[in-house]
Amino acid sequence: MSNPAIRGLQLVNLGVRTLAIKNGAKPMSIKGDHCQGIVPPKNGWYKDNLLIENAPDSFPADATAYSVVELMKKIDKGIMLGEEMPDTLLTPDELQSFLLSLTEKYGS
Hints:
Elements: H1 4-22, E1 26-30, E2 49-53, H2 59-79, H3 92-106
Antiparallel strand pairs: 1-2
Helix pairs in contact: 1-2
């Protein structure tokens, strides 16, 4: 199996595109270096610039919540921890505490 985090990101990317379409928006990949300094400098799929046209005002918050929750669930499933992942987006402090508790439990 590939790296669970990378595979999770790939699946979340597809999920965000599906979410956009379901909300009447148009997702598309665009070329260019629009996110220079934000994404890792190596070439790869994760450097794909995603433009979403005609998204409703609620879409950024919905896409963020979906992405965080689904990525955690997909990584958990990929590495077979069997932990109960949140079904809704936690606050930043709650999310940090949750991730730290997993690090303490499973980190070496």
